[in-house]
Amino acid sequence: MDLTEEQQQIREMVREFAVKEVEPIAHEIDETRRFPKETVERMAELGLFGIPITEEYEGAGGDNLSYILAVEEISRVCGSTGITLASNFSLGTYPIWAFGTEEQKRKYIPDLASGRRMGCFGLTEANAGSDAGGTQTTAVKKGDRWILNGTKMFITNASYAYTCVVTAVTDKKAKKKHQGISAFIVTKDMKGFTAGKKLDKLGLRGSDTAEIILEDVEVPEENLIGEINGGFKFFMQTLDGGRISIGALGLGLAQGALDKATQYARERIQFGVPIGRHQQVGFKLASMATEIEAARHLVWHAARLKDRGLPYSKEAAMAKLFASEAAYRATKDAIQIYGGNGYSREYPVERYFRDAKLCEIGEGTSEIQRLVISRTLLNE
Ligand code: COS
Question: Where are the alpha helices (DSSP H) in the chain?
């Protein structure tokens, strides 16, 4: 579990920023569904959007684990801000960084890594949820352009993003549907590209989730990522990394809920003693802490595999699965420890609980993670 000096510095810097600047507005942005542009600007100033991107492209030249630590620390105080950071890098930036041409990287990565512009990822559609290959958005070649039509939904940062990496069907007759899907970089200034309705959500209410509508959008052929009909695998690989970041989101939320519940258990007196001294409460805290530590091992391990260039698909799924479910249990138990106060919006733990639920759904449900893990075990 040792961190390098650089990783420790990033962790401490982000923790300080989170406590000083993110936590004080966490309740308000949740309550009013406000996207905190000022926090996004501060995260850009601190270089958080491009931690694993090399300096040549205006990144911080760090590693993937450092970025995961940043997501964990921000999520410890505010899940909405945590997912804004996580989606911007793992989904909005990474596919261009990992699979784009040199020209695409030069054109788009500096703006994304520096945080001057935001990015998003357009995979999900009304009929392409767990079945990621169910894409109905189409791309038809016309001269040197692709004409895109379709609607993407549940897209994090959609209203604020300049670039959106989207999937579209380029070969309707492909033998297997994933063999006819391509990936494109679409930008906000292209005619016919609009961010649609903003979703009113249970949790993560200070983050932006909206539709992306593509109506006869003319995309230059140089904006195709990789080969025609080769986009599905890029999206799957992008999701592998995204799953580590959702693991970090869950981990941060669980840790935040434990911090609060422990403090409360020290201060709240019932039957003449702090409630933490009652075994039913103390043991709850012990179980939460143990699961959080286990989740941290899985999340950091997956991030380290990625840093070392080793396969991490199964480990990312395990990290996300375990950290998400641990977050759900920890935030639920934090409410229980707070009792009636936990059920009240006057106290933060109900927000943690609502935010944590997303981790079991976004970037592949827990059921999909079990499918990915079991298929690997069975060599399918
Ligand atoms: N990395 C690289 N390639 C991958 C991959 C990965 N992680 N996962 C699958 N592939 C490849 C497979 O190897 C296969 O390629 P070949 O035909 O060359 O063998 C191809 O992609 C299709 O894979 P598969 O047959 O497993 O696809 P399925 O349609 O069965 O779907 C799941 C696989 C369910 C795992 C996928 O659809 C998925 O992850 N769904 C969840 C989507 C999701 O997370 N949505 C939320 C988005 S929020 S941004």
Answer: 5-17, 23-32, 37-45, 64-75, 79-86, 94-99, 102-114, 231-267, 279-307, 313-338, 340-343, 349-359, 366-377
**Would you say the pTM of this structure is higher than 0.90?**
yes
Task: Look at residue 237 in the predicted model and tell me its pLDDT.
Answer: 97
Nearest to 177 by CA among 207, 236, 135, 141: 135
Q: Which residues have C-beta within 8 Å of that of residue 268, sequence separation ≥ 6? A: 274, 275
What DSSP designation does 62 have?
Answer: -
Q: Of all atoms in ligand 1, which is nearest to the CA of residue 133? A: 29
- pLDDT value of residue 1: 77
Ligand 1: distance of its center to the CA of 239 in Å? 9
- Indicate the DSSP class of residue 92: I
- With 0-12 / 13-18 / 19 or more C-beta atoms within 10 angstroms meaning exposed / middle / buried, residue 24 is exposed
318 and 297 in contact (C-beta within 8 Å)? no
For residue 204, pLDDT beyond 80 = yes
> From ligand 1's centre to the CA of 351, what distance in Å?
32
In the block, residue with structure tokens 């930008």 = 187
Q: Ligand 1 centre and the CA of 236: distance in Å?
A: 5
Would you place residue 14 in the very low, low, confident or very high pLDDT band (cuts 50, 70, 90)?
very high
Q: Across all residues in the chain, what is the average pLDDT?
A: 97
Q: Whose CA is nearest to atom 9 of ligand 1?
A: 236
The ligand 1 site (C-beta within 6 Å) comprises 91, 121, 123-124, 130-133, 178, 232-233, 236-237, 239-240, 313, 362-364, 368, 371-372
Give Dmax (Cα) for the chain.
79
Residue 380's pLDDT band (boundaries 50, 70, 90)? Answer: confident
Residue 363 annotated among the catalytic residues of the structure: yes
Task: Identify the active-site residue in 28, 363, 367, 380.
Answer: 363
Looking at the predicted structure, is the pLDDT value of residue 241 above 80? yes
Question: What is the C-alpha to C-alpha distance for residues 158 and 172, in angstroms, rounded to an integer?
Answer: 27
Please state the rounded mean pLDDT for residues 327-349. 97
